[in-house]
Amino acid sequence: MGRNAEKRRAKKGDDVVTDKPATQATGTTAAGAAGASIVPTTTLPTTLPGQDPALSQAPAWWAANMLPPAPSTDGVEDVDGSLARALFRITGLVASAIARPYSIGVLGMKKVAEEVARVVDADTVTLLRLEHGDGDLVPTRLVLTASHGLHEVDAGVVSFGLGDGIAGDVARTGQVIRVDDAPRDPRFVRLYGQRTEMGSMVAVPLMVGRKVLGVLTASRQEIRGFSPRDEDRLLLVATTIAIDLEQARLYREAVADPLTGLVSRVALLHALPREVEIARRYQTQLSVLLLDADGLAALNAAHGRAAGDAFLREVAARLSKAVRAADLVARFGGDELVVLLPMTPANQARATAKRLVRLLREPPIKHQTTFTVAVATLQSQLDEDPLTFLARVDRALLEGKAAGGDTIVSAAVDRKDS
User: Fold this and answer.
1) 224-279 confidence digits (pLDDT tens)
2) What is the pLDDT of residue 122?
3) How does pLDDT run across 106-127, given as a tens digit for each residue?
4) What pTM value is reported for the model?
């Protein structure tokens, strides 16, 4: 029996009197079990206890700082104050995870799984997302996003089709399933070489309205380890996570450029004033690069607009991978892309421009063309406003294009009269 199970038994103490023999742990994963009594779907609440609606807005990483800070949970009227605080923490963790680059986001979702395990006192928790296929060739499957307590051998192979195992049944039906003795259920599915032990589990859908986004599972090593109260708590947590994930998707669709997936011009103009204010308040340097693909119009004329779109998507992908986590890459319009560089002085910004041009040239992109890059650093001591800042770098770009391809030009400073 694991340490968590021992703690639970000690916590119950004399409050629980039973003449049933002690149960033994048996082996399988939380996501790998199959079969149990099916509990009718509970109506998912649209508003969580004490939740600020703004906290369900989980934006992409480039807009994470636009969210208001999580309010204090002191005084929240809830049957279980610790649950209310846990829901706030989970909302913040999910928002932080999906607002970060992939590698950091994976670690963030692992923290979400750890927090869920504390909420329901589980030995193992898995977060499975639903990946939609395209028919028979690529079927729809549940794949592991994050886990807590799952053996690394099992974590590497967790994947279920719709209807496969307990998690697959939950994804197919949208119903909550609680398993009291998973290994004895005829529908139980055991992973090859499985090492994680469990006896009981609860699996609930990550669902918004009628749309299933994935499945959240929790397991304990004891037989009959979960109560209806545990089931209700896990469903409430799953609702919180599902709302955050869906709001993040809607936010990205609203502010992302549909062709490149980068931040749109509207989102850039919304974020820039805040970056300017931060640079002024904390006396840091803010720089911006404005890149132009010189021959895109000729490329479209010679090979078609589809070729030009593919070229822009490749440029956007290379820039996104090459910048820091704190930087912002946006499509400014047409063939112009912006890279916002917080805490970057002019000399470093120019060095970054040279590095990015090299990355866009090698290896060559199909239908390769040259680039012109304008570099500007905010003149906060001259009270330069965001629009003046962008206008200055835009003028520099026009001057650079007149000089020829693969040119990097620094924007001249507009000094005000004293």
Assistant:
1) 989 999 999 999 999 999 998 888 788 777 778 888 888 888 888 888 999 999 99
2) 92
3) 778 889 999 999 999 999 999 9
4) 0.57
Q: Which residues pair with 78 in a beta bridge?
A: none
Query: What domain range is 216 assigned to?
Result: 3-255
Question: HSE (CB half, 13 Å, CA atoms) of 120?
Answer: 34
Question: Does residue 93 sit in the same domain as residue 170?
Answer: yes
Residues 213 and 288 in one domain: no
In the block, residue with structure tokens 């070229």: 311
- Residue at a domain's end among 231, 255, 279: 255
